[in-house]
Amino acid sequence: MNTRHEKVIVGLSGGVDSALAAARLLQAGYAVEGLFMKNWEEDDEPGYCAAEADLEMAREVAAILEIPLHKANYAADYWHRVFAHFLDEYRAGRTPNPDILCNREIKFPALLDHARRLGATRVASGHYATVEHTDRGSRLLRARDEGKDQTYFLYGLEQHQLRPTLFPLGEMWKSEVRAEARALGLPNHARKDSTGICFIGEKRFRDFLSQYLSAPPGEICTPEGRVLGQHPGLMYFTLGQRQGLGIGGVEGAGDAPWYVVAKDTGRNRLIVAQGADHPLLLSTGLTATDPHWILGAPSAGEPLSIRIRHRQPLQRARITRIDAAGLQVRFETPQRAVTPGQSIVFYRDRECLGGAVISAAAGEAEGPDPV
């Protein structure tokens, strides 16, 4: 395909991945323009989301590549379509993943909107993923670099969003990306990757969340009902968490570390037990809602690969029930810390088929019931 002068809008974040994506598209002959999206209004204290530093880096990259850089503020949309849902989920005792919703509701709609207004036919980003366009539609494929693969965050995209999208880094290793960016003289070739949730930044998660939600303290208990201490609010903890429990030594309990194994929202109790693989942390399956399929749903009973969290090694599972309202999944081997609010994402070989939002773990391994 002759790409000469075909215009593409690249989401430039200030990071090395989006910078090299733009550079590679230029090398391929596209007419490239950048878009910097601001999705969060920072408070007065510097260093939390670092939007200004990110914008300045995006400007430097655009200047070196000699491409136009557009800027757009989507903070209001982000608040109403992503952050409000984030808070609602924590109020309900679940642990949401805002990055999945942001890609579907903000980032890719914004890129496509700007592409239309600027007369572009393509959009692109520095995500580690690949799109394969077929007669049936566009397939989302895992990246070559499994450690950086981001299809977990992209499973919610629609066909009209995938069809014009390019992921120039999908076949590259992260080490290759940094080396090529350095060779091209890009100023962010060694810049640290962003981690966690942008709108929290360097703040302690507990401090950030307490600005928006109130959480009554309650008891920390063993599954048998022994009270070990007090927690500052259930919303500050997630299943499988070890750090920040503040239990200390427990008489007669030994030295094994303690983990969150359940949250009793009815009685406002945090249930903890010793051992990373305590039976209450292991589940043989799950139920999920709001399924989204990129090119049609798989068949119930088909052996598939799944992830229940980003960067988890692929696991084997089967969907035992599937309909428009939700689905039920059984794992080939028990999975640890199945967390309501997170997503389960399904794969057939390299193809990302879609996913759903986890509503509950099912079939916990045998152990005492939390009291």
TrEMBL record:
Instruction: Respond yes or no to whether keyword tRNA-binding is given for this record.
Output: yes
Q: Name one GO cellular component term.
A: cytoplasm
What positions are marked as the site Interaction with tRNA?
Answer: H127, Q342
Which reaction does this enzyme catalyse, per its entry? Answer: S-sulfanyl-L-cysteinyl-[protein] + uridine(34) in tRNA + AH2 + ATP = 2-thiouridine(34) in tRNA + L-cysteinyl-[protein] + A + AMP + diphosphate + H(+); 5-taurinomethyluridine(34) in tRNA + S-sulfanyl-L-cysteinyl-[protein] + AH2 + ATP = 5-taurinomethyl-2-thiouridine(34) in tRNA + L-cysteinyl-[protein] + A + AMP + diphosphate + H(+)
Gene Ontology MF terms: ATP binding; tRNA binding; tRNA-5-taurinomethyluridine 2-sulfurtransferase; tRNA-uridine 2-sulfurtransferase activity
Report the residue ranges that make up the tRNA-specific 2-thiouridylase MnmA-like central domain in this protein.
206-274
Q: Tell me one GO biological process term.
A: tRNA wobble position uridine thiolation
Query: Where is this gene product found?
Result: Cytoplasm
According to the lineage, what is the superkingdom? Bacteria
EC number assigned by the record: 2.8.1.13
Q: Which residues bind ATP?
A: G11, L12, S13, G14, G15, V16, D17, S18, M37, G126
Catalytic positions are C102 (nucleophile), C198 (cysteine persulfide intermediate)
Segments forming domain tRNA-specific 2-thiouridylase MnmA-like C-terminal: 284-358
**Which residue ranges are recorded for the region named Interaction with tRNA?**
148-150
Q: Which InterPro entries match?
A: MnmA-like (IPR004506), MnmA-like_C (IPR046885), MnmA-like_central (IPR046884), MnmA-like_central_sf (IPR023382), Rossmann-like_a/b/a_fold (IPR014729)
Quick one: where's region Interaction with target base in tRNA? 97-99
Return any one Pfam family short name: tRNA_Me_trans_C
Keywords of this protein's UniProt record, alphabetized? Answer: ATP-binding, Cytoplasm, Disulfide bond, Nucleotide-binding, RNA-binding, Transferase, tRNA processing, tRNA-binding
Q: What is its main location?
A: cytoplasm
**Known function:** Catalyzes the 2-thiolation of uridine at the wobble position (U34) of mitochondrial tRNA(Lys), tRNA(Glu) and tRNA(Gln). Required for the formation of 5-taurinomethyl-2-thiouridine (tm5s2U) of mitochondrial tRNA(Lys), tRNA(Glu), and tRNA(Gln) at the wobble position. ATP is required to activate the C2 atom of the wobble base.
Family membership, please give it.
Belongs to the MnmA/TRMU family.
This protein is called tRNA-specific 2-thiouridylase MnmA
Q: What species was this sequence derived from?
A: Thioalkalivibrio paradoxus ARh 1
